[in-house]
Amino acid sequence: MLRKLLIYVSLFILVVLSVVIYNYKTHATFPSASFAIKVTPWQPTRLQIPSLHIDAPVMGVGATASGQMDAPVSSAINSPYWTSVFWYAPGVAPGQAGNAVVAGHVDRAGGGPAVFWSLATLRAGDSVFVQTRDRHTLTFVVEHMVKYTSDAPERDVLQAVFGPTTEHHLNLITCSGAWTGQGYDERLVVFTTQVNGS
User: Fold this and answer.
1) What pTM value is reported for the model?
2) In order of start, what are the domains of the chain with their CATH numbers?
3) How far is 145 from 120, CA to CA, in rounded Å?
4) C-beta of residue 151 within 8 angstroms of C-beta of residue 121
5) 104-134 residue pLDDT tens
């Protein structure tokens, strides 16, 4: 009996160690090593959407080599990339005039839910909160959402999501639609407008 127990305990420890080693080896620690983010008081640190039970840390990212907004991934199931959101730091910060953009993954390696799994269930009027480094809480309200196909005119999409404006917007992005084997064939964008500044 004791021998069997020792075998089971040894197997359990071996499995746990294997998972830890796998996650350590496949987890990248920096979302964009080539992009240095200047620390500012208005830098977003957390995104909260109470109606979806989202309370996520914010990682600043830049653009990929092809010029698209970076959204780091990992093959590690427990990577913080699946539970964090990504702020496009070369653009404006939430609370500033313009279109601030925050992206998040809809699912993770293996297909499990990621931070923006339920983003499509947001409704007009729902609140989104952003905490900044200087401990301010900015409040945004959902206006509407749009699904863009992967073959939508790029200029039109970039203008709508990232383009200049004198208003204070926060646009949330995730994947949607059908999986093609290379990625999803749609992007879901939730457009929000700031309603307070403190």
Assistant:
1) 0.80
2) 30-196 (2.40.260.10)
3) 8
4) no
5) 999 998 889 999 999 999 999 999 999 999 9
